[in-house]
Specification:
Layout lengths: L1 E3 L3 E2 L3 E7 L9 E12 L9 E8 L2 E7 L6 E10 L4 E11 L3
Parallel strand pairs: 1-8, 2-8
Antiparallel strand pairs: 3-6, 4-7, 5-6, 7-8
Length: 100
């Protein structure tokens, strides 16, 4: 599943939420990892968009993201593991733009 989050603007820090409610999850989400790659634009270190570790709230995974480079579009990928050991993935685009 792929979606869009944002855009994120100059100076912003905000949560990126990945909602697994509609997934056929066995039990509950017990762990999650969010990774990032650069979809378009230029950023020598796209991993710095992610701040800290993801947190789990019910069937949602929340990851704090921070503004980086104007014009960059990042692909965030959340892999969540349920209590039966099954892995579920949601990807989301995060466009970044400067505020004039």
């Amino acid at each position: 599943m792929s979606t869009s989050i944002g855009p994120i603007q100059t100076g912003e820090e905000k949560p990126a939420a990945f909602d697994f409610t509609d997934e056929e999850v066995s039990g509950s989400i017990v762990s999650a990892v969010v990774s990032v790659s650069l979809k378009s634009g230029t950023d020598p270190s796209p991993s710095t968009v992610i701040s800290g570790s993801a947190s789990i709230s019910g069937m949602r995974v929340i990851q704090k993201v921070v503004y980086q480079v104007d014009g960059a579009v990042y692909l965030l990928r959340c892999v969540a593991t349920d209590s039966a050991g099954y892995k579920h993935t949601i990807s989301a685009y995060l466009p970044s733009k400067a505020v004039a």
